[in-house]
Amino acid sequence: MLKKRLAVSMAVMLTATVAAGSAVSAQDVIEAEPGQSVNLMLLPKFLGIVPFTQADQGAQEAHAELQNQGEYLYTGPTAELSVAGQIETVTNANTQGFDVVMLSNNAGDQIAPVAVASTEAGTPVVTWDSAIPSGEGETVFVAQVDFDEMGQTMAVMAQSIMGGEGGDLAILSASPDAANQNAWNAAFVEALETDPAYANINLVETVYGNDKSEDSYTQALALIDKYPDLKVIMAPTSVGIVAAAKAVQDEGLCDQVKVSGLGVPVEMVEYTLAGCAPEFALWDFVDLGYLTYYTSYLLATGAIQGVEGETFKIGRPIVINGQDTFTIEKDPTRENGLRVLMGPFTVFNIDNVEAAAG
Q: What is the pLDDT of residues 98-114, one digit of tens each?
């Protein structure tokens, strides 16, 4: 376990050099030593949706590849108890013998105090998918994409779907405490407000479906009723986008109201082919789980310390860009955070969604 290890490996000595301010060169790339024994927990926002199941698949792949002799646990709360469940799970992780908690945060900064306590007790927190906004208690965030870039991409998709003519648009988000959703929405709103190219897009309201299908469906219907000139519902949530697309399709309004945002191709293919959701984006959650596990294994075994400038190699390249070497860097979207940036994402449409859906 990390808190019991006394030996200093060559990788750690290289890390100390980086931390002292020395530039990272090609020979300083840190690689994992397979076969060690560390206990790692993957904690999604909640259980039961496809993206998090895919992240678990990627983590399992890395666990087997690294021949980790310790425990790998995929666990999480229900959607109804997500915030309280995540806080309780992180609180208990150290006493249960886990060396790192890999957290997709759904509790905003509410989870920061227990993350700090967990780290001080010897169980650091690596976030993925959704960071701790303040960065408190978090060693590093494995970011799927650059969050500012995601906001710009949502603006481009909205403009494309509207045919450049503009019109009314609403955001159907997950929960008010979801840090990733809030960051994407803020970047999206900034793009709409500051880029003259989007001056004709009118954001009418942001609503929350709490990443529950029924709630998101109801919110989508309410938006359609409230705004008769609504052209696009932008849902940067895999649950919300499916619910919104179904609501639009059920109402027979796919020619009038379009849906976009972030979705899983296998869940969205029907709606894209029907014209209800012409464009949407996503990254590979299997790769995200894989990269998160590698980062956490390196941290748990002492190969990296989780400081800015450390560069490490994973077992296989990320599929979409062929990258297998990553560097811990300052997170430009948060004042006090560090990140490992996976990137990039794919925009899906009628030309590629069927192939992606398998």
A: 999 999 999 999 999 99
Of the candidates 12, 32, 29, the residue with the CA atom closest to the CA atom of residue 20: 12
Residue type, 93: A
Compute the half-sphere exposure of residue 31: CA atoms within 13 Å on the CB side of its CA. 8
pLDDT at position 334 is: 92
Long-range contacts of 255-258 (CB under 8 A, 24+ apart): 256/231, 257/224, 257/230, 257/231, 257/232, 257/233, 258/161, 258/231, 258/232, 258/233
What is the arithmetic mean of pLDDT over 42-47? 97
Query: In angstroms, rounded to a whole number, what is the distance separating the alpha carbons of residues 238 and 32?
Result: 33
Phi, psi angle pair for 354, to nearest 5°: -65, -45
Contacts of 165 (CB under 8 A, 6+ apart): 200
Task: Tell me what pLDDT residue 16 has.
Answer: 36
Tokens of 108: 């905003």
* CB within 8 Å of 354: residues ≥ 6 apart: 269, 273
Q: Which of 29, 3, 2 is nearest to 15 (CA)?
A: 29
Contact between 245 and 276 under an 8 Å Cβ cutoff? The reply is: yes
Q: Are 99 and 168 in contact (CB under 8 A)?
A: no
- Tokens for 19? 């931390």
Helices 112-120, 82-93: inter-axial angle, 10-degree rounding:
10
Q: What is the pLDDT of residue 6?
A: 27
